[in-house]
Design a protein that fits this description.
Pfam families: STAS. The protein has a 5-stranded mixed sheet, covered by helices on one side. About 35% of the residues lie in helices and about 30% in strands. Helix 1 packs parallel to helix 2.
Length: about 110
């Protein structure tokens, strides 16, 4: 597990990125690496679980958009998992939820 998260594979072919800690400017290189590895390894769906994060800044949201675009180019779907109401509201306010689907659980 890196300081920001880990990648795991589920038996159904889904790649899950479990994030933890602060996804801020200082964590961007690590977040970029995690998302890139997950998209490159995925065969079907990438779920990015935001529930372990304490901070999710705008720059990190930009990386998520880039990862979603890269996933689409590979024929893979990237989805976010977020159960925290204020964070879901922020995703809606930024309209990120119109670009990347947001689920309320990791069982897609």
């Amino acid at each position: 597990m890196s300081p920001l998260g880990r990648i795991r594979e589920r038996g159904d072919g889904t790649t899950v990125v479990d994030l933890d800690g602060d996804a801020d400017l200082g964590a961007l290189p690590t977040l970029h690496q995690l998302l890139t590895r997950a998209v490159d390894r995925a065969t079907n769906v990438v779920l990015v679980d935001l529930d372990g994060l304490t901070v999710l800044d705008d720059a990190a949201l930009g990386l998520v958009i880039g990862a979603a675009a890269a996933a689409r180019r590979r024929g893979v779907e990237l989805r976010l998992v977020c159960t925290e109401p204020r964070r879901r509201e922020r995703l809606a306010d930024t309209r990120l939820d119109q670009i990347v689907p947001v689920d309320d659980r990791t069982t897609h």
